[in-house]
Amino acid sequence: MSARRRRRLAVVLVGAAVAVAPLSSAHAAAKDDGVDLVVPVLAAMLPGQQGWVSALWSANKDICDVKVTVSGPGLTVSYPTNTGTYTSMYINSALATGNIDYTAFNVTVPSSAGGPVPVTLAVSYTQLPPGQIKKDDDLKTAKFDCKGPKGAQTVEATLPVVPVVGAAVAQRTTAVTVPRTKPTWVNIKFQGRKPGLDNFRVTLSPPAGLTLTYPSDATSAGLQSLAGLPVAREDHVSVRLDAGGLAPGDYQVPVHATYTGGSYDGKLTVTVTAN
Question: What is the pLDDT of residue 23?
């Protein structure tokens, strides 16, 4: 029996493809053509970025016990917790002829990467006899005996790495609304665009009449999740705004962020309402 626990990954599942002819003999030796990589160019990443990447596969045979490992110059690769040392298909470790499923793996791109990185995907599987699984089977619940000849393939792909042009930090929250009658905590989101944004701290310069408080009565606000701002990820700082001394209206508040080796300056539009 072979049943793989469904991975809890936020990756989009793609539907089925056109079927191809099944094997003519259940006892034939497995040829190294059990799967095809549908798209040989993976999702683009930024230098220094870490994130989950998916590879989409189509099956040329009925296969099970699919295992994929990934390597590439300078890349650090890890796998889902339920497989540990490899990745497998999303629905099940099996795939019927003509169907499509994907594998997912976590990649860290080196900060020095300046262009596409070649990626090698090593695939192993067991070739099932005809009739064990069918194209329309629900492989989350289907029962089958994973036995047959072993197969293996080495598939080449490309991971595009796109250098960032422009600021190292993007301010995602540019406007907030607070009532005049009640002090309010607001979140200001930022996104890292380049590596090295460690010890990220934010201060605001409020106008007279707007009282500002940082968490723990500190002199600046740090990020909610981490001390640094990772590449291509968002995090936020929280500040408490007391607009009791302002009339209703819009106010431009300077925002200043510092991090190891640099800084960022932006603005936050604070809209003060009567209630």
Answer: 34
For 186, what's the count of Cα atoms within 13 Å in the CB-facing half-sphere?
22
Q: What is the chain's length? A: 275
Q: pLDDT tens digits for 250-275? A: 999 999 999 998 999 999 999 999 98
Nearest to 105 by CA among 119, 124, 126, 117: 119
| Chain mean pLDDT for the chain | 89
The β-bridge partners of 255 are 204, 266
β-strand partners of 159: 117
Q: Kindly state the tokens that stand for 19.
A: 């079927």
Distance CA 134, CA 239 (A): 57
Give residues with Cβ within 8 angstroms of 130, minimum separation 6. 22, 23, 26, 62
Judged by DSSP in three states, 12 sits in coil
What domains can you pick out in the chain, each with its CATH number?
A: 35-159 (2.60.40.10), 169-273 (2.60.40.1510)
Residue carrying the six token digits 């508040």 = 253
Alpha carbon distance 163, 232 (integer Å): 12
How far is Cα 71 from Cα 74, in angstroms, rounded to an integer?
A: 9
Categorize the per-residue pLDDT at 81 as very low, low, confident or very high, splitting at 50, 70 and 90.
very high
Tens of pLDDT along 205-238? 999 999 999 999 999 999 999 999 999 999 999 9
Give CA–CA dist 78/55, Å, rounded.
14
What is the rounded CA–CA span in Å between residue 253 and residue 202?
13
Residue 142 binned pLDDT confidence (cut-offs 50, 70, 90):
confident
